C-alpha cells in the first residue's frame, strides 16, 4: 500500500493490532528507495506498524537520496549538510503526521530503522528530536555531528536505546568510523548495543536476526 498524502512518499505494512500499534519507520540508503528495506517487513514482529519512506531528493537515472554526496578535487567526498538537516527535520515532521494518520501509539514506541545514509539520519533525528522516538536501529552508518544540535547536554536522552551494526569489511563507510559510535553514545548516557559482522556494505543474515530479536525485546 502506498500513500503520498503525507510529506514523504511511503509504503506500509499494517499491524496485527487495530489500534495503538508500535510504529517502525524505515529509511533507506543513498541511491535506493522505499522498497529496499521493506523486504524485511514480513519477517518483523506482526504487532509493528511498519512504514518505509522514500528520500526526497531524486537521483539520475534512478534512486533517491536524503542528501547529496559531492566529490571534488579540493574537498574530496563531502556531505551536503543543509540537505541533511532538511531531511532530518522532514522525518521529524513525518513522524508527527504518521502518528496522527495511522492507528499507532502516539510516540510511546517509535522505532527508526535506517541503513547507511538512513542510519546517519536516524542518529540526527534521535539526538535532535529525542521526544519523538524511542528506539534506533542504525545499520552501516556513522555519527555526523554536523546534523546534531549544538548543545547536546541540554537534551534528555535517558529513554533512548540504540542498536548499531556494521560490516567489518565495509568498502563504503569504513568500520573505524562506526567503531566511534558506542563511546559517543556512552558519553551522552544513551543505552546502546554495537555489533560487527564479516560483510561489506550490507546486512548479513545473522545481523538481521540479531536486530530482529533486539526489536522484539523492546516491544515486551
Write out key terms for the chains shown.
two-stranded antiparallel sheet, about 220 residues, alpha/beta, 6 helices, eight-stranded mixed β-sheet, about 25% strand
Describe the structure.
The chain is an alpha/beta fold. Helix content is 29%, strand content 24%. It has helices at residues 35-38, 81-101, 117-128, 175-178, 181-187, 205-219, and strands at 2-3, 10-13, 23-27, 49-53, 57-58, 64-65, 69-72, 76-79, 110-115, 135-139, 161-167, 191-197. An eight-stranded mixed sheet has the order 1-2-4-3-9-10-11-12, sandwiched between helices. Helix 2 packs across helix 3 (117-128). The radius of gyration is 16 Å and the shape is globular. The two termini are 28 Å apart.
Helices and strands in order:
Elements (H helix, E strand, L loop, with lengths): L1 E2 L6 E4 L9 E5 L7 H4 L10 E5 L3 E2 L5 E2 L3 E4 L3 E4 L1 H21 L8 E6 L1 H12 L6 E5 L21 E7 L7 H4 L2 H7 L3 E7 L7 H15 L1
Parallel strand pairs: 3-4, 3-9, 9-10, 10-11, 11-12
Antiparallel strand pairs: 1-2, 2-4, 5-6, 7-8
- Provide the β-strand percentage band: 15-25%
Oligomer: single chain
- Helix fraction, binned, reads 25-40%
What radius of gyration results from the CA coordinates? 16 Å
Termini separation comes to 28 Å
Largest sheet features = 8 strands, mixed
Overall, the morphology is globular
Give start-end ranges of low-pLDDT stretches.
none
**Derived structural class:** alpha/beta
Can you summarize this structure?
With 220 residues, this protein is of the alpha/beta class.
Amino acid at each position: 500500500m502506498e500513500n503520498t498524502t503525507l510529506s514523504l512518499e511511503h509504503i506500509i505494512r499494517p499491524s496485527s493490532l487495530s489500534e495503538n500499534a508500535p510504529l517502525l519507520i524505515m529509511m533507506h540508503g543513498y541511491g535506493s528507495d522505499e522498497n529496499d528495506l521493506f523486504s524485511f517487513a514480513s519477517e518483523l514482529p506482526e504487532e509493528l506498524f511498519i512504514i518505509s519512506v522514500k528520500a526526497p531528493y531524486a537521483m539520475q537515472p534512478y534512486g533517491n537520496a536524503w542528501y547529496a554526496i559531492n566529490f571534488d578535487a579540493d574537498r574530496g567526498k563531502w556531505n551536503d549538510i543543509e540537505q541533511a538537516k532538511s531531511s532530518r527535520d522532514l522525518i521529524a515532521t513525518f513522524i508527527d503526521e504518521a502518528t496522527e494518520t495511522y492507528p499507532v501509539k502516539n510516540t510511546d514506541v517509535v522505532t527508526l530503522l535506517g541503513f547507511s545514509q538512513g542510519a546517519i539520519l536516524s542518529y540526527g533525528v534521535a539526538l535532535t528530536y529525542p521526544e519523538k522516538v524511542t528506539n534506533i536501529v542504525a545499520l552501516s552508518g556513522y555519527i555526523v555531528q554536523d546534523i546534531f544540535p549544538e548543545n547536546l547536554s541540554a537534551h534528555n536522552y535517558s529513554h533512548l536505546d540504540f542498536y548499531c551494526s556494521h560490516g567489518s569489511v565495509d568498502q563504503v563507510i569504513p568500520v573505524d568510523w562506526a567503531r566511534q559510535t558506542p563511546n559517543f553514545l556512552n558519553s551522552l548516557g544513551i543505552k546502546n548495543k554495537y555489533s560487527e559482522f564479516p560483510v561489506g556494505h550490507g546486512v548479513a543474515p545473522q545481523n538481521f536476526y540479531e536486530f530482529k530479536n533486539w526489536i522484539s525485546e523492546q516491544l515486551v
